[in-house]
Design goal:
Layout (H helix, E strand, L loop, with lengths): L6 E9 L4 H9 L11 E7 L8 E7 L2 H8 L2 H19 L6 E9 L4
Antiparallel strand pairs: 1-3, 1-4, 2-3
Length: 111
């Protein structure tokens, strides 16, 4: 069966300067929880070329429903646990969260 990459989710991550190394290490040692999800095709993590740029986490899915299932799954929590913990610690200490994220989703109309 051919993977059509019909649906794409992009997570735009804005990291504080001192958190960038930690953020990259989280992906280098990631849980691969997303890899087991039905409908998941591939993921790319893009590092900005400029200091003020955002990291992009681009995931490819068979369908929007498959992506939504991922965001509601225990695997989603497992895959994001360490980053969520870092944010919670910063908030508890009254600090600015080390990263902010913004999801946007897209329907592929041409390849």
């Amino acid at each position: 069966m051919e993977n059509n990459r019909n649906f794409v989710a992009i997570n735009y991550i804005d990291c504080e300067a001192e958190y960038k190394e930690r953020f990259e290490s989280l992906f280098a040692s990631r849980a691969h929880a997303i890899d087991t999800m039905t409908g998941f095709i591939d993921m790319q993590v893009l590092k900005p070329q400029t200091d003020d740029g955002k990291y992009l986490i681009v995931s490819f899915w068979d369908t929007e429903e498959a992506f939504k299932d991922w965001t509601k799954s225990p695997q989603f929590i497992e895959g994001h646990k360490r980053g969520f913990e870092d944010i919670a610690i910063a908030k508890k200490e009254g600090k600015t969260p080390p990263m902010k994220s913004d999801f946007k989703t897209y329907k592929v109309i041409s390849r």
